[in-house]
Write a structure and sequence with these properties.
The chain is an all-alpha fold. 83% of the residues lie in helices and 0% in strands. 17% of the residues are buried.
């Protein structure tokens, strides 16, 4: 296994763990600090809220990184379609880690946030990312 592959797998696993920690711990703590009404929510509403917080964090992280790549990354600018820039792969690995994490959260909380269309969407995106990586 070459160094690039190890970095991509490491990034994917780190991303998965980061988003799990955000969902299970950070979002609960942060939301309770920021909003007084959070503690009065039902468990189901807290699960849905935390899922949305993690989704927002993911979109900010990957979106800002993607914008940076689009505007400033020389290998991406030089050949955006056929180039093989490392940072783009890291961004895709980060997104893949999130998608796997979110799939696990959806499956574990199916009665609250389960939706077959979310599962189809996540699996389709993961399939596309697999072919890119």
């Amino acid at each position: 296994m070459d160094a690039n592959t190890k970095v991509v797998i490491g990034t994917l696993c780190s991303s998965f763990l980061l988003f799990q920690v955000l969902f299970h711990f950070v979002s609960y703590w942060f939301s309770a600090k920021v909003s007084t009404g959070y503690n009065s929510l039902s468990i189901d509403k807290k699960i849905e809220w935390n899922s949305r917080v993690v989704s927002t964090c993911h979109s900010l992280l990957v979106g800002i990184f993607g914008l940076y790549l689009f505007l400033f990354d020389e290998p991406t600018i030089a050949d955006p379609l056929w180039g093989d820039p490392r940072l783009v792969k890291l961004n895709i690995a980060t997104a893949s880690g999130y998608l796997i994490s979110d799939l696990l959260i959806i499956l574990l909380n199916w009665k609250v946030i389960g939706d077959k269309f979310f599962v189809i969407h996540h699996c389709t995106a993961l399939s596309a990312y697999y072919f890119v990586l």
